């Protein structure tokens, strides 16, 4: 039995509250068990220098934690005067992932800023950030379409992320909380599309190793998990849910 | 009439939700109109070097805004690599204010970290931070007393803060929202104790000036406002509310 | 009796030496007791980006101390790689104060840089900086008017600043030196115009509190102090002194 | 045909020159095609604070490129005043990978610093760094064992890394050079042990996606590639090569 | 004729005002023509880590300019967040120079901080800093000897510095002011002891070159210049002047 | 006898390998005894802002050491977040030196970046950098001339640098290695042209002093040393060697 009583292939309860804060074009509060992240999508009417005059847009992501989102208080990165390597890795990952399911030509010369701010952390903050940020992105795009600023729907597919890992006693498990993550031998983050394609795969033995057989079992678990996340995303997107086409494997 | 229909001496609706996030010893989400701040109080069992071996504690505060707490997205201070002057001013102010109503000898060699993170801003974020942080501080202290780590109740008095200002058309007004703050000729933040004493007074003509008569009217408004805030603080503190003694003017 | 033998409402000796250094458009060495500050006003023929093409100017201030201006040597902020919160607060204060008595439309698209460098500190460095910087500003403006670069006299009123405070034994006192400042319960900086209006008021209980009665007595002392400073400013400005109109209370 | 005439599953020529620079305890120059990296292992007789008094050691890695290792000159990170996100990701990856094949208890309270400095880049710098750093690490450990400072051989297994990817025209390919890497749809770095276990897997669709079938083909290619790298590592380690035990899958 | 009417081998007027600011153990305002530098020597009762428990002291120097010490206002290094290369070169030079004429064993485990703050610049600020700092150093040492904290007089010789250069029209000249320095082909700073020994020699063709013959003429001029500086140093040191032994060439 | 058996006026073995890395327009690996530096010259088709639209070019230099180029591992400057004073001094020196022998009008509005990266250090890294960088510069210029991008040969003279010093036992010596440098009383770096002119002279008593007689002997040694370096430079430049005119003393 897992520390919180879940089955090996069971997600924690997911809740996505839309338009959680009023200023961003799109925003959500995503809750995955005890992990809570405010994800917002802000649209700015210009692009970074390397993209100017190409008629296409950009998505960039930033990630942060409140100092006391965690059991022990962390020093703010603004006080340290620099962003840590972990934060950089995560925000680069979020940006890449979202860019894989949007047609940047269709948003014009605009930058969409994704901000993922963890207000309470209990494992899986980066995957929750991606899953929530996708919804905030769709909401922001819908707002700009409703205002006539974007004409063609640019979202190509659903996107969600989940962690899987190898527990030293229980073996392969889905959606690790903080305690499980701390003791896992293997930790893997899997980002997938609604069509069942991989966007990114990051698996580490955390100073241990894993076999190809374990890898296959982990990927099976992850696939199960993201499908449940897509279900939740569709539920909160309501009328917009069906605008996002899920391609069959043949169409990909 | 004010832009949001309030009377000149009327506060915006106040709501304080306690234990909003689970890890800190004390935390609240304070909502003042459309301004929302997560305030947390974290107790660390050591003091900064300048206080070591003196048997007394310290309170220090940090303040930040989510990038899209505001109408326009702000660049994160962690990305800039430095904390702005405005942030420094505010966090120094919050720290000084809270230290004025606690007996630091009674908390032992501990640091209480106050984190005020604005998730949505509509004027008055620094005064909301102080009013909310006071409640988070009391909750944290109570937790440590319940666990037997602090023996004598160290809180000396209630503490709340409010802004007042001079509107170019309406004259003196209480609790300015963002639009009012942007157009005000004079802006004053007043921090007071439950006993009606001043802790801090910061009034600026914002490149204009004000008379002593105006000052007196502003202080009258502020006194009215903080008394309503004390009422709300008492309500959410429940059983702990009466442990905080409010001194009569003679006792001060 | 005060530590240096002054009466409770007595300023320290003031001296303002004009054109103390040769390169700036305006400069003074202001001496207030043992506190000495070089204030210079430098005019640059462009404005910061947020003001471009608006036909008006800007004033910005910087403040620093020599490392050994104080009893104990301080580490340079350039060595630390960042400006402290205290410095930021002070330079923002100086800038705001000077902007309140100048008509920025009349100086054209120019920035006036105010540099206040404390070469010896004995309390009251920020108020001495403001009082001295006002004179340097007038001198710089006069130079540009004499050269025909500015056509309309932009200075609207006199400006001076003084500290007042509550001594634990003596009560309310005017113009605190370093020793008095260190032991004061309440510390207030008051910036006023020649017309008797307030520009800025910053009073702090320094982890203590103060009553409205004390506030009124402190403001009376401050008013007496700034009037003496205006007298000294007029003396050193000589022929230019009367160009600055002091409005009666009715005209404000 | 690939741009450099290789077969789809063909590595570029590998060369590892040992003790390339004289000061480090272990060093190599690894050449993979046109990619050249100086890898050094420096042993310091103390550990970071979080490991003190635990009787075990630590490995940490740093990665950098000479400014003109690349086609376009890059600004030095020392001039920028900060390490980029890409560099941080890579050096964290190198450190984690090496820690997976060493028994840190056996090296005592020591830190082994791995420095990977790319002097010429043509794709695959991070995987070349890991493959070369492993050899430098073994050399450094052997030096300390020869001097009697380390008593038990701490290396648990071989370690090597390779990139695989999906070329838009050719499909799955092994060991991408810079041109191939720039145009690949999918890019995956695979780090494996001599026993055929995975240490780390990082695959990204680079704003595209990939299927599970493609993943399997990529992993087959990677396995072939690392086996050839182990062969080269054994060759240059000479007499030390057999001290490193390669476990059968059953023993893992 | 030189721009200011001096002869080729003529120094500008020198003035050294001792104890110019009150807090440092030793301080001077040195004026060389229009160049003015506040030099202070502060004694701290501890040494940097690399010197601990060796029974000897250290001298370290810092150099800075007020922003408007120059014709054009310079951005403060504290605002830039870093010290420029020019400043670093100068402060390293001042420190090395002063350390050459003091017996660090005789001052005990103390650090003497030399601060050279240029309040007005007209060429030769680094050489004026050294010449003035030497006097401040002697005054600080004398103060500590008078208080019984240092027992043996540690100053081994006089020290002064001067610039020489090659003017494109006039040839070799002594003590260049800012205009001369800007147009000189060769610029050399010479630091010498009272015994006529060189401490440091820094000559640069400033993107031009110079011959050995020119070098010899420049050194002759420099020798003449420093001798006049020693005369001025002796004058202001008064009773302490003769405590500093000037060795004959044989004794060096 | 010197520690490595050389005569007092003997250089260490010199070797210059051209086009050591493939991307830069010019590059060398210079080996001076055990000191090894990769010098590269990169041509960028634009100039810094202060030179725009003047039709001339610029040369700027950067210098760095690999962390383990030295006996003890050094912390990377990118990790420290700033460039040390020593590095700044050296890179400013390299830049100035190279600019003295090139006609910047002839290279057009281009910047030549000189990168000197020390991969192994044993004294004399800055002089080896200059001597090697000169060759890299000539190679880069030749490449641009061959491609028709530069029309007139801009190199005015040969340039090389060497260190000389005073050993406490042996007296004046040429080309100090690390051990000699550490114990020398006087350390001087001399940069000269093929015509026998000085470009830069930096001599320091390293907290000691030196006489004019010693200076003359050091300069004689340096002259001998640079002549041997010019010989080596000519050898590796091959066909280009005679394009660089060496002026007789009369022509300078």
UniProtKB/TrEMBL annotation, chains A, B, C, D, E, F:
| Catalytic function, reaction form | tRNA(n+1) + phosphate = tRNA(n) + a ribonucleoside 5'-diphosphate
* Protein's UniProt name: Ribonuclease PH
| Domain Exoribonuclease phosphorolytic span(s) in chain numbering | 10-140, 160-225
Enumerate the UniProt keywords alphabetically: Nucleotidyltransferase, RNA-binding, rRNA processing, Transferase, tRNA processing, tRNA-binding
Assembly and interaction partners: Homohexameric ring arranged as a trimer of dimers.
Family matches, as Pfam families: RNase_PH (PF01138), RNase_PH_C (PF03725)
Q: What is its EC number?
A: 2.7.7.56
| Annotated source species | Anaerobacillus arseniciselenatis
By its UniProt entry, which InterPro entries does this protein fall under? Answer: ExoRNase_PH_dom1, ExoRNase_PH_dom2, ExoRNase_PH_dom2_sf, PNPase/RNase_PH_dom_sf, Ribosomal_Su5_D2-typ_SF, RNase_PH, RNase_PH_bac-type, RNase_PH_CS
Which region is the signal sequence? none
For this protein, the record's CDD domains field holds: RNase_PH_bact
Q: Which residues bind phosphate?
A: 86, 124-126
Question: What is the main EC category here?
Answer: transferase
Q: Name the HAMAP family for this protein.
A: RNase_PH
